[in-house]
Amino acid sequence: MAIRVPRRQLFIGGQWREPLRRQTLPVVNPATEDIIGYIPAATSEDVELAVEAARKALTRNQGKDWSKASGAVRARYLRAIAAKVTERKSELANLEAIDCGKPLDEAAWDMDDVAGCFEYYADLAQGLDSKQKAPLSLPLDTFKGYVLKEPIGVVGLITPWNYPLLMAVWKVAPALAAGCTAILKPSELASVTCLELADICREVGLPPGVLNILTGLGTEAGAPLASHPHVDKIVFTGSTATGSNIMTSAAKLVKPVSLELGGKSPIIVFDDVEIDKAVEWTMFGCFWTNGQICSATSRLLVHEKIADEFLDKLVKWTKNIKISDPFEEGCRLGPVVSKGQYERVVKFVSNARKEGATVLCGGARPGHLKKGYFVEPAIISNVTTSMEIWRDEVFGPVLCVKTFSTEDEAIQLANDSQYGLAGAVLSNDLERCDRVSKAFEAGIVWVNCSQPCFCQAPWGGTKRSGFGRELGEWGLENYLSVKQVTQYISNEPWGWYKPPSKL
């Protein structure tokens, strides 16, 4: 099946605009290593134009066109976008799969979630109207007060390549619902569907400048956006190192940031589980999306009583995963996103072996695939807590394993990490699951599963996995500023100062 990648330009002020330096970047199909198209490469000059367009959109007609419009007005646009995404689901899923390498079934699921996210935030936007002027309970009856929630302003949204459109929409939908205007900068490794979102916004008549989309390199477009003095907030998903750089830039301007960063999340499997069921959730938690998930539960802690049986089944199930071109029927593992990512994953496995770990399966190119950035899912045992494979994020289909004997030991090993994004616990003892959930040092906990994500539930981490929350009502609050208004209602003078004598 031939899939044509549309040739798009930057989306600034509601129009397609060629980058001022007329530079482009190739779009590489990770399953074939072929160049299949080009995206525009924005630079700091284009960032200036996009920020200017966003600021104009924020204040146009004294804000009545967008930022000060009712939530119901903004909700109509979000619902129209959702409808277009649903209408173009097949096309968008095809483009997502060919651009980033995820299996087509996953990409189609993502598009359903994209539409659902816009619908959800449309409802929250509409609900904002009734929450304005929420009264405050004050201790003095001579005063009354209320709270206003207002858009924070122009926001810069910098997003990753593992869920190119969905992760972008996790930011775009609540930002627009709140009344912000935005500049979206997707990863240069997978930007195609984000440019199609621009086309959808143009189709539904989104006011010009409300959403601007700049593709390009992080150093050339992302960094100027993060440090721009007229961008009021930066929201970023990506590596901890880049997040730290963004914080540094923002600190100079006392600019707020929200960061969803790396992870090395644990999954604890107790000895009372139904083993086949637990094996599948363990695989899904680490190998879904070709293993390229910030929240991947890539550190398996399995009770020593069932470890041998569990690992034997886990290896057999893992070897049975269909690794293929994302468009082949039944594909459950496609290529990683790029040559650089392929080399990174393979090096992690090689280093683990050199440090003394045992590679039970995977970690190399599948024999039947001569081209493409494919890596067989790897399971690594005999791991110590000082090893690189246990401590650092791989961002690929690599699962490392340790055993434990007690609940306390499992919790200690789970929390012994610089990261704190997620954790999973598998056990038929729900009281134990509750104890472990409370003990996890993480922002997300799964019980008897791994990786389910719903736009109604908050998403974010602790420690070096970042701060702030996306999704749910918390995602909307990310883009709102709270203003208190207090009124003196007594007819009597305040009486603090003595009045001057009457002449």
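Next protein, fold it too.
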Amino acid sequence: MSLKDERFPSSAAFDEINKSLNASEADRKDAMKQGNAVFAFTLKNGAGETESWNIDLKNKGAVSKGVGEKPTVTLSLSESDFGALVAGKANAQRLFMSGKLKIKGDVMKATKLDPILKKAQTKAKL
């Protein structure tokens, strides 16, 4: 089942993140050890619609739609900024400092996302 939503083109990255987590048991366990949290993403597209996905690196080691169960940290940003972030064209810290990325919950856990996003970065064609 694809996690991509046509209204949010960059959401294809969630499929790539899920693939990289499921590439091998060792990869998944390593990502869970590094992240050890539930990361929720709420994206807003140009039409003003919002949709959420989550990367569960606490219990399942998988990606799914929705905010997930008790997210440790929630990241809210525009669909285009998310696309730039996973493509390596944007810096999360700069997006946060400029107010384009809003973080609720454990801000320090958000820093643990970088290696997970980098794995998808090489595979996602956005």
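About the second fold: The longest strand covers residues 38-44.
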